[in-house]
Amino acid sequence: MSQSWQPQPPQYGQPPQYGQPPQQPGYGYPGPGQNMAPYPPQQPMPHGYPYAPGFPPPGGAQPGRAFFLGLLISTGLGLAYAGILFAGHEDLSRVGLQASYLACAAVLAVVVGVVTGRTGGRGAGPHVWAAVLAALGAYLGVANGYVFTLLDIGGTDLLETMLDNEPMAPHKFWWKRLDAGIALAGLAVAMVGAYTVAHAVSKKQPH
Asked: Disulfide engineering: 112 pairs with which of 121, 129, 134, 174, CB 3.0-4.6 Å?
């Protein structure tokens, strides 16, 4: 007689449910009268180190990002100030130019200092970069304003003539038109202010 095609049930205990292995001793299941051993308790992390080793805490210091953000803000504010000089060069007096230059340097110091202080952390490197970038933005704001005004007055021909005969004309304008003392004072305001702000802001950060 041929055997039945239906599978025979296991010969021990309760038949297993579909998709589950037979729960017999020796395969990870407790035998009769044995209790399941509890999982060992998770060890807490050492005090003062809330993150797993090898993984830095989120939102840590990022000096590279601080530099690029500072450069972006310095360039943007410098170009904005150059646009202001271009728009008002016909009515802006020498005193007005000097006052607006110092104001631009102070704004650059605060904005660049805050951004680099929050992003770059407490290291001295980002603070120094903040000072350099703020001063660069103030200087280029005046120099680019001179170039923009020159383009408006004489077009590209006048600009090409200046580049051929006197390429340092924007720098001389910044130095002489502002007066040497005011020109240096603006750089000092930008550099010292940005470094001080970045240092003060970074001390309030957790990293």
From this structure: 134
Q: What is the pLDDT of residue 41?
A: 53
Contacts of 10 (CB under 8 A, 6+ apart): 16, 22
Q: Are 175 and 127 within 8 A, CB to CB? A: no
Phi, psi of 28 (to 5 degrees): 95, -5
Distances (CA, A) of 26 to 11, 13, 80, 101, 119: 17, 15, 77, 84, 57
The per-residue pLDDT for range 28-60, each reduced to its tens digit, is 444 555 555 554 555 554 444 444 444 444 556
Cα 78 to Cα 83, 186, 193: the distances in Å are 9, 13, 16
pLDDT tens for residues 60-85?
Answer: 678 889 899 999 999 999 999 999 99
Q: Is the pLDDT of residue 194 over 90?
A: yes
